[in-house]
Each structure stands twice: as C-alpha cells, then as structure tokens.
C-alpha cells in the first residue's frame, strides 16, 4: 500500500485526528491535477472536476484538519474513484 493510500485509510479510521499537512498531501494527489489550488487565510481550496460547487475547502486548525472537512474530502475521493472506475 502506498503512502497516500495509507493516509486515506487513516483518515477513514479517525477523521477527528488528522494532520492538516496529511490532508493537503491527499488533496494534492487526488485533486491537484484539476488546477487552481488557492489559499485564503487558514483555508486551502482545491478545484474538483464537477459542475456546481466544484471545490474542496480545508482549514488548518492548530495543525489539524477539521473532521467534517476530512469527511468531505473522503466523499469527494470516493466520487472521483467511482467516476474513474477505480473505486476500492
């Protein structure tokens, strides 16, 4: 299992205790290819390939990511993998 996959597994197991830097690594891996990554204050916003509200917003909270944002990232990864036919 690769490093990114291990991080995703840890995020699924414990979304309340995830390092912000680890969530950024995962988002860079899955969503970096869609261009435009913006930072606004303590928030980093990743573009996704979907119409509507095509972004993932994560926030640095004293070195940790917010649990609800971790769950949103995981949901977006699942959708991306399902659309690519690479779901696990």
Describe the fold and architecture.
- α1 (3-13) packs across α2.
- A hairpin with a 2-residue loop joins β3 and β4 (64-65).
- The chain is globular and about 35 Å long.
- The chain has 88 residues and is an alpha+beta fold.
- It has helices at 3-13, 20-31, 67-84, and strands at residues 37-40, 43-47, 55-61, 64-65.
Oligomer: single chain
What are the segments in which pLDDT stays under 50 over at least 5 consecutive residues? none
- Total helical segments: 3
| C-alpha geometry | globular
> Structural class of the helices, strands and pairings?
alpha+beta
Roughly what percent helix?
40-55%
Strand content: 15-25%
Secondary structure topology:
Layout: H1 3-13, H2 20-31, E1 37-40, E2 43-47, E3 55-61, E4 64-65, H3 67-84
Antiparallel strand pairs: 1-2, 2-3, 3-4
Helix pairs in contact: 1-2
In short:
By secondary structure, the chain is α+β, with helices and mostly antiparallel strands. It is built from three helices and four strands; from the N terminus they run ααββββα.
List keywords for this structure.
88 residues; 3 helices
């Amino acid at each position: 299992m690769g490093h990114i996959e291990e991080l995703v597994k840890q995020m699924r197991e414990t979304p309340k205790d995830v390092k912000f830097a680890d969530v950024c690594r995962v988002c860079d891996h899955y969503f970096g290819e869609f261009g435009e990554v913006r930072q606004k204050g303590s928030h980093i916003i990743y573009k996704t390939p979907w119409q509507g509200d095509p972004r993932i917003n994560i926030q640095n909270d004293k070195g940790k990511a917010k649990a609800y944002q971790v769950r949103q990232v995981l949901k977006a990864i699942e959708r991306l993998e399902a659309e690519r036919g690479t779901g696990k």
